Fold this sequence. Notes:
The structure is a homohexamer.
Chain A: E1 4-9, E2 13-18, E3 27-33, H1 35-45, E4 50-53, E5 55-57, H2 60-71, E6 80-82, E7 89-96, E8 99-105, H3 116-125, E9 127-133, H4 141-156, E10 160-164, H5 174-185, E11 190-194, H6 208-217, E12 222-226, E13 232-236, E14 239-243, H7 256-269, H8 274-290, E15 314-316
Parallel strand pairs in A: 1-4, 1-9, 2-7, 5-6, 9-10, 10-11, 11-12
Antiparallel strand pairs in A: 2-3, 7-8, 12-13, 13-14
Helix pairs in contact in A: 1-7, 3-4, 7-8
Domain Carbohydrate kinase PfkB (chains A, B, C, D, E, F): 19-298
Keywords (chains A, B, C, D, E, F): ATP-binding, Kinase, Nucleotide-binding, Transferase
GO molecular function (chains A, B, C, D, E, F): ATP binding; kinase activity
Amino acid sequence: MTAVDLLTFGEALVSLRAPGPLAAGGALTMHLAGAESNVAIGLARLGHRVAWVGRVSEDELGEYVLRQLRAEGVGVDDVTRDADRPAGLLFLERRTADLTRVRYHRAGSAGSALRVADLRRPIGDGARVLHLTGITPALSDSAREATRWAAETGSRSGMLVSLDVNHRSRLWTREAARAVLAPLAAHASVVIASADELDLVGEPGSDESTAVAGLLARGVETVLVKLGADGARAYTRDGVRQVAAVRVTAVDTVGAGDAFTAGYLSGHLDGLDLAGRLRRAVTLGAFAVAGHGDWEGLPRRDELSLLDGHETGNTLR
Amino acid sequence: MTAVDLLTFGEALVSLRAPGPLAAGGALTMHLAGAESNVAIGLARLGHRVAWVGRVSEDELGEYVLRQLRAEGVGVDDVTRDADRPAGLLFLERRTADLTRVRYHRAGSAGSALRVADLRRPIGDGARVLHLTGITPALSDSAREATRWAAETGSRSGMLVSLDVNHRSRLWTREAARAVLAPLAAHASVVIASADELDLVGEPGSDESTAVAGLLARGVETVLVKLGADGARAYTRDGVRQVAAVRVTAVDTVGAGDAFTAGYLSGHLDGLDLAGRLRRAVTLGAFAVAGHGDWEGLPRRDELSLLDGHETGNTLR
Amino acid sequence: MTAVDLLTFGEALVSLRAPGPLAAGGALTMHLAGAESNVAIGLARLGHRVAWVGRVSEDELGEYVLRQLRAEGVGVDDVTRDADRPAGLLFLERRTADLTRVRYHRAGSAGSALRVADLRRPIGDGARVLHLTGITPALSDSAREATRWAAETGSRSGMLVSLDVNHRSRLWTREAARAVLAPLAAHASVVIASADELDLVGEPGSDESTAVAGLLARGVETVLVKLGADGARAYTRDGVRQVAAVRVTAVDTVGAGDAFTAGYLSGHLDGLDLAGRLRRAVTLGAFAVAGHGDWEGLPRRDELSLLDGHETGNTLR
Amino acid sequence: MTAVDLLTFGEALVSLRAPGPLAAGGALTMHLAGAESNVAIGLARLGHRVAWVGRVSEDELGEYVLRQLRAEGVGVDDVTRDADRPAGLLFLERRTADLTRVRYHRAGSAGSALRVADLRRPIGDGARVLHLTGITPALSDSAREATRWAAETGSRSGMLVSLDVNHRSRLWTREAARAVLAPLAAHASVVIASADELDLVGEPGSDESTAVAGLLARGVETVLVKLGADGARAYTRDGVRQVAAVRVTAVDTVGAGDAFTAGYLSGHLDGLDLAGRLRRAVTLGAFAVAGHGDWEGLPRRDELSLLDGHETGNTLR
Amino acid sequence: MTAVDLLTFGEALVSLRAPGPLAAGGALTMHLAGAESNVAIGLARLGHRVAWVGRVSEDELGEYVLRQLRAEGVGVDDVTRDADRPAGLLFLERRTADLTRVRYHRAGSAGSALRVADLRRPIGDGARVLHLTGITPALSDSAREATRWAAETGSRSGMLVSLDVNHRSRLWTREAARAVLAPLAAHASVVIASADELDLVGEPGSDESTAVAGLLARGVETVLVKLGADGARAYTRDGVRQVAAVRVTAVDTVGAGDAFTAGYLSGHLDGLDLAGRLRRAVTLGAFAVAGHGDWEGLPRRDELSLLDGHETGNTLR
Amino acid sequence: MTAVDLLTFGEALVSLRAPGPLAAGGALTMHLAGAESNVAIGLARLGHRVAWVGRVSEDELGEYVLRQLRAEGVGVDDVTRDADRPAGLLFLERRTADLTRVRYHRAGSAGSALRVADLRRPIGDGARVLHLTGITPALSDSAREATRWAAETGSRSGMLVSLDVNHRSRLWTREAARAVLAPLAAHASVVIASADELDLVGEPGSDESTAVAGLLARGVETVLVKLGADGARAYTRDGVRQVAAVRVTAVDTVGAGDAFTAGYLSGHLDGLDLAGRLRRAVTLGAFAVAGHGDWEGLPRRDELSLLDGHETGNTLR
Lengths: 317, 317, 317, 317, 317, 317
């Protein structure tokens, strides 16, 4: 088997979405969730060869997770089934039109038991890009060690390592996160963060330019700062480049950051220059917010231009 | 049993909501509706001890009404079951994105048969606040007499009486309403109205300041004028205070006025000053319009700050 | 305009169906209900020219009723819109797998205000068959008088009058029903009843043969006794003929009697002999119970043979 | 039978709507679709006597189409049932909040087999207005010939012929369309087009004023240019008149053009002057975009003023 | 506050029901589940005064649980909210028409952290009946100790203690269960078990009569053996009495045993003799299996006779 | 790439299922359908390595088909995307509880354009079993030629060829089918048919034993006769063996035959003897009819024993 374009790992969760307040009950819809699997799907839809690794419960919910990943063409050959632990869950309620609230049921889950052994074979098989997030090391000691090992091994074997900081305040404190993520960033070529996450891979309280300078000094080649509806900034040794977001009517912002990352890495795999990579990044971000779900609205390659120059209320027929 | 914080009475209806034009058929969803029960729920969610009184049909629809009130922690011990009359109904269709149309099926309903006897025990048990609306006296002669008796008895026994004008043009004319509501307002400490309802508790055609002055002269302590997306004005003998609405994306404005009232009365029960009461009033109003349903989106006490400083598309995780 | 094949009149209701206990709330589905409109639809689906007459509320629910009747090809040109009265409603809950419970909200409804004037034009236009039920005269004094007038006028002008007893115990007592229905039956050529309804068109407590003999003696030509899963018996002056029910898996028995009646009258209009009319009657009854809804599963003419010789679990492809 | 107010013909499709990306599967809802049937329904709802003609498959989907048209009071007496061809279908997916994507399955459909013979009787019976669109001639050779024949025959027999250009780029090229539509327009009294469709009934590449001048020169009395959210312009020999759109929250723009046309023609039938016709046109357009579906939200006559002077979030009770 | 009729405690779960295989995804519906809360609801519906005690998570899912219990009129004043542990969950899939599969996510849940301190106040307040199940002691060490303490304290203070064995093989082995449940049974007046659970409160491998004899010898007054569709047997010192099940079409057997228990205890509270208690037990069991859900179909007092003498396909109107 | 366990080819359709009569409209659910893909999924769920080949439309519906196949772990690497033809569709309505009606929209579909070139590579790669059905050759001339070529090439290269007769009377006549299928059967080792399909692979009108004898004489090793609820008979040169169906409550018989075939071939791939293959065949058939959908209820390997010895209404917890 030849090396895949992108390898990523983490916890894939079963997300149960309520259309309104959860306390009211009613019907929940099942979805696949997880920052890394979102990125994997984003790239697979664009035709890249992608593999996802992790531990998945050996029951119907685990089966559900695998069905979704396979449906999207993400390789799952190296997934470990865990017979002893349940699937990680996430309850997501649309509390108001503007506010989504998430509750995790992932303590002790199959996914959080990730360990180095689960990654040996796929990392050994190689990949052009190895993508990791700051969520996985927050899940357990063994997952933290696995992430560290993967970053180190991956970068040493010449993979491009990308790290999305993705701070989850319900999983750990900023201090705990910084102690782990800052060293991790040193293995990465690409670091992706929102503006308020930058100091988690730098000195506490450092401002954007200081934090970025520190990262570049430690060998990171590109630092991407996600700015939501304001687009993004990309820092390299050559300076900074800002890109505006693609204007769309936003209906669901969950997953936008992962889509942005997927777009950027797709541009990298296609050999685009920085401007091209950023353009694809914000394009995927726009697709993510313009449709419901974390990843369901992401484009296939032939759809990449679908949002170009269209106004509100367009019909293609 | 000790006196409750708030006692209210009126008709609780079964609301049947259609997502689009009713004539097209399809699925209707059942909801509890009623201005007074909306206020009761708003206060109960914030932890106040609340009781609702009224006549409820002795069939499955009546059972539904009671299940909803009990679920929300509203006391229903003094509700009268009426074996001879059907539940009052309300058909609510979303005619366009901007226009909701309501049709009542409440003539001859259990709720409209409310009478003084139904209120004797709960009014006798006492309450810190007695809340009434201008809907109940429009339902029947006996309901009108019951409302008058309650206002008089309540104010005489030292309860704070609040009156929400709540004009329903499909139930009676402005003239008929004025003849009943203006005398009623004289028993109230708090009168709540939208700008175009003010002259129903004053002289016909009087402008806002004249109408308010008349009310204050007749002993009303606070006059609240609801201004929708523009917030509200509160008049006392000390002058007028305006408060802006909390900015949210509005998806359903039904129930906003009742939420505003619930917030104001909750602030009163908590001993807040006028500014604090108004702030809570507009906060509850914002929750009401930011979610679907008349009361389903109202906050629990720990959620009161949820809308503070959040922008569009926020996710709490 | 030429005379229609069948004219019928009564109250068409909006039926709100709950899949389980109504007190639990949830989604209700809207349906057209009414014994006479069920019969009208059954005949219209088979290609007969049919008109239905009645009073329909001048609002969205009335519009719904007309949309359904028109969709099914039932003529509604002589329907009276009533601006002052609401639509009659019916709540139908599937209380258990075996037990359906119905609650009417039809007191004071538009449909119950039917009067002679509403029927003058359509009865004047004529019809081959005039179908009436024992429900309409239970609705109001004016509806009772209208039914009596129609039966008398129809039979006098040479229409075949058919009467389905259809006793509704929630609308009137057996005694009240008998006082009205027994005289009415004397105008009918065809009387349809379940076994326990026969004495409502005869002497109180009379057994089947006595009741039937009395009807035949008063000029009724055919008496049809519906036996549910056991089929039906038809009495004429030539004797009695029994027909078995068509075997199907029953999922919803509501509307089966009306389907039976429609089948019988369709056979009459097609000039079939008694055996053929009964066969069509039980065939339509079988369609009614084999599908959900009061009339939704009734066959078009090309589907009449669909249940012939098929076993459980058949697939036509 | 007296002549109807409006006669129109074309293909009525079964539209299968997905709430999100179609590739994700899930539930599709069935709707009636078709520019001509949309116009027919728009006029029937306003009380005009309307007939629609076309070929409809002789199966359940064809039955569905007829049930919808009949429900709306559109005459279907002259519809031809086609036993050999399937129903035309249309898959409509809400790809993003702003972008609707349509896929046709209509090659070889019953509707596309329309021919002159199907139109002889209804055109012979006459109508005040004959409405045609630029979609029908794109469906097949026989449909093109039928459209040409109808336009010619209709205009010769004194019907007001209206033509909505309605270019469908998935059915034919602009060149192919122009070759057919430009001659067709010469039979029309009213030509309706969006700004970028005008040169399909004129010279290639001609600007708005040139194209309009050409049409007026060839005998067209009124040219209506639809401008979406910007309203419309009407050109006659007396000059040009612009009308603004009615401001509403738009939720679904599909069908807006057909609604506009229906409103204009309704105004014509009611004898309104140009300003009145345009006002009704934009009113119906507003109803169309303010509700879901192609035609489901169109107003009955008593609802025409429903959007007047209402702000966001109004409730009528 | 006076003592309630029945007090029970345990874990109330949020049940997520899938209509088909869970791995296929789709919509899940939320329900309240838990053997003890099922019994509590069964009794509350019949008008008994009932309280339920347990630990409930301090989040939206916990709120959901409380809303359901309150809706049903079950007292929850002594419930402990647990801010540190999540709600216990249960995934229930209808794997085939005949086979329901349950997966628990309850390890470490709020409910499983039940302890003696949580029960002190309610047990101190007293109750006529204290109901416990063999599920609670399987949840955790502290829950086991709480159950033991409650049984001992309750029986010592003169409450009638009832114990439903309710073996859950996914929570513990038969051996582990027997070691705890056999001593527990010695405190009970009523022991309820299915035939294959009897030896969990007696000697391993003992047959029904031996096991029952042992229980009666240790002071149990009544042993109820649930036989599903075959009804039940009741053993007392006076001998054995068998009762047949009420015949209904079964659509969902989950909750049948709890309904049986509720019916028996209701009969006890009403002072019925053994025959009357058993009749009510099988009546509630029949309601449970004849409707969907664990408890949703249970009867109110006026519905107790609803299943009497009705055949398939009955309609009450 | 090593050879797969099973290779199959044909048309995979998008099935649109209506819960009741299609003419009534409402919501349709999307499913993957196709006899060959059903068999492929049945085997993939049991862990066999399976590939499916065919032509799939290059649009969203084609994407849907591939997502479903990939989700189930069926190899689709050799699928041809067809940019010029639409997806084949199938409308499936539950006409009555016992009767399912299917309408195809597959004339001119992508799938029906299958040709030899589409099969060269996968057939060249080899497989232990090549499965074909009598549906594919009915789709088009090129599909017929492709089927013939595959059967011949497969058997010549030593694959076990299995043929399921699967007569579709809406696609071709029995005569046309026989002319193609009888020669095809001569290439097969396993022939599967229902009793009334046997003479389509033998002489017209021949009875079961004659038809089977003819097949065995022409080199077929095993003839499987599917008997629905009565199980199946297997003929080999050693004689005949009958197997009973596994008793379950049947809710949807569509797909039962394909499940049977998948079970048999799975047994073959696992090296089971005839009794073991038949037992697995009827087990999969039972899973198919016990759940909704064509293949959705099929078991994973660890679920094969799930139906053993269970009675109605079992719950696993």
